[in-house]
Amino acid sequence: MPELPEVEVVRAGLEPAVTGASVASVTIFDERSLRRHDGPAEDFIDRLVGRTMLTPLRRGKFMWIPLDGGVEAVVTHLGMSGQVLLRDTETDDARTRIRVDLQHPEHGPLRLNFVDQRLFGSMAIDSLVPSVDGGDVVPSKVVHIARDPLDERFDDALFLSRLARKNTTIKRALLDQTLISGIGNIYADESLWAAKVHYEQPTATLSRARAKLLLAEVRLVLRKALAEGGTSFDAQYLNVNGQSGYFAHSLNAYGQQGKPCPRCGRPIIRESFMNRGSHFCSFCQRAR
């Protein structure tokens, strides 16, 4: 599933193309991609055509484009395989579920294709409401999502305090989007490897110093992945221009089972975890 770096790469790529653009037409090819929209396809089209798009925003893995008037936004969730591809008006992509044609005052006619192979992603028009942690407005469907660690308003002390009170294990906590957003399986494994923390370490036994180190490593991993365009293992992970990310070439733990740990040389292990897998070094990341 696309995580914070992949979604931020898409958001940043869309920003110059959609900010200030008006919606000329909308075509729905598969209504399943509107499952999170409160209304039929006709409602989505009627509420979007003729509107002007503002600067795209993101929280965690959710991205939205506010609309003129400041009370609604187009919310996009990429799911497992969703892509938002920026095209000219003559280009279509296979498995395009929603097509949005735009008219930009500087760039002229443009097209956004929402492409989704597995149909777990979605687009919806949603109301903007005050954020529960203050300072801004977010779509109502995103209000439960915590700030991500790259957000300038992320509260380190609040996160560390809430983490210490969680009765769970550390990887489950990192994947809890109500506690800290934007982190999925890939970047959780990479951050835990970097901080030398076992994925099953109970949060109650994690010292504050180790928790602060882990948070610092989470930020380093996310920023490095963001600089490299995100992680791409196949053609499902593309930016708005159809280019792949390259962070997969920098992975130390995730997907490296059987290969030597870059730190100690012992083999990386993969264990089943929440219908997925956890990748770690049993020597460097011993449970404490």
Topology, element by element:
Layout lengths: L3 H15 L3 E7 L12 H8 L8 E3 L2 E5 L5 E6 L4 E6 L8 E9 L3 E9 L5 E9 L6 E3 L16 H10 L4 H5 L10 H11 L12 H20 L40 E6 L2 E6 L7
Antiparallel strand pairs: 1-6, 2-3, 3-4, 4-8, 5-7, 6-7, 8-9, 10-11
Helix pairs in contact: 1-6, 3-6, 5-6
Q: Would you write up a description of this structure?
A:
The protein has 288 residues and is α+β, with helices and mostly antiparallel strands. 24% of the residues lie in helices and 24% in strands. Helix 1 crosses helix 6 and helix 5 crosses helix 6 (208-227). The longest helix has 20 residues, at 208-227. The chain starts with a helix and ends in a 7-residue tail after the last strand. The relative contact order is 0.14.
What would the keywords be for this entry?
Helicase, Ruva Protein, domain 3; five-stranded antiparallel beta sheet; four-stranded antiparallel beta sheet; N-terminal domain of MutM-like DNA repair proteins; alpha+beta
Structure in a nutshell:
By secondary structure, the protein is of the alpha+beta class.
- Tell me the major beta sheet: 5 strands, antiparallel
How many distinct domains? 2
Unreliable segments of 5+ consecutive residues: 232-237
| String of helices and strands | HEHEEEEEEEEHHHHEE
Radius of gyration: 20 Å
Residue fraction in strands: 15-25%
Q: Any idea of the CATH class of the largest domain?
A: Alpha Beta
Shape: elongated
Could you say which structural class the secondary elements and strand pairing correspond to? alpha+beta
Second rung of CATH, namely the architecture of the largest domain: Alpha-Beta Barrel
By DSSP, the count of extended strands is 11
Span of the ends, CA to CA: 30 Å
What is the CATH fold-level name of the largest domain? N-terminal domain of MutM-like DNA repair proteins
Percentage of residues assigned to helices:
10-25%
Number of helices: 6
Mean pLDDT: 90
- The CATH fourth-level homologous superfamily of the largest domain: MutM-like, N-terminal
Walk across the major sheet and give the strand order: 2-3-4-8-9
